[in-house]
Design goal:
The chain is mainly alpha-helical. The protein is built from 10 helices and 5 strands; from the N terminus they run H-H-E-H-H-H-E-H-E-E-H-H-H-H-E. Helix 2 packs across helix 3, helix 2 packs across helix 7 and helix 2 packs across helix 8.
């Protein structure tokens, strides 16, 4: 199996994405575990920064944080995954609705609607799984970065979207399907 095949398999592995989202939701769940992420757009923008830590590193100074706190590894700077593809709504993977449906179907997340905004939270079993994932050494970078997102980028969906487009103007000018590189 080639490296390309391995990477394609990883990208297609829903559990990898679901685990990352559980850790992210856990970081945003508050002390008592009842807080939610307001809106699919906010979740997608936060996950963009979590999934592509080179972009998080670039964003942190704009929010008064040390970029080194993202702990971006050298292999993350050069990997195929460090480039993001522009989807219809910017750095947004079209699979988020499916990912949420899978989390809800597995009893790990809740999705409720208040007015026109969905609220995404964790169930008790979702918290348990997120805790186990957060304790795994392999997920420490994801956990650390999710906490950074909570601390420095817990903005409304609209403000977060504006922040991302202001911080990464190249995202809005690319053709659909074009690669968004992390070099600036």
């Amino acid at each position: 199996m080639s490296l390309f095949d391995v990477l394609a398999d990883l990208e297609g592995n829903d559990d990898l994405h679901l685990g990352r989202l559980l850790v992210l939701l856990k970081a945003f769940s508050g002390r008592d575990g009842s807080d939610t992420v307001e809106g699919l757009t906010k979740l997608a923008k936060l996950d963009f920064l979590l999934r592509y830590p080179v972009f998080l590193e670039r964003a942190l100074p704009k929010r008064g944080a040390n970029p080194a706190s993202a702990h971006v590894q050298e292999h993350e700077r050069k990997s195929v995954e460090s480039a993001m593809v522009r989807f219809r709504y910017g750095p947004w993977d079209f699979r988020y609705r499916r990912f949420l449906n899978l989390l809800v179907a597995r009893g790990l997340a809740t999705v409720t609607t208040e007015r026109r905004t969905i609220h995404i939270g964790l169930t008790a079993p979702g918290h348990t799984v997120a805790d186990r994932l957060s304790q795994d050494d392999a997920n420490q970078d994801v956990l650390r970065r999710a906490k950074l997102l909570k601390r420095y980028l817990d903005l409304s969906a609209t403000k977060l979207m504006k922040f991302i487009y202001d911080t990464f103007p190249e995202i809005g000018t690319l053709r659909l399907g074009a690669e968004i590189t992390h070099e600036h």
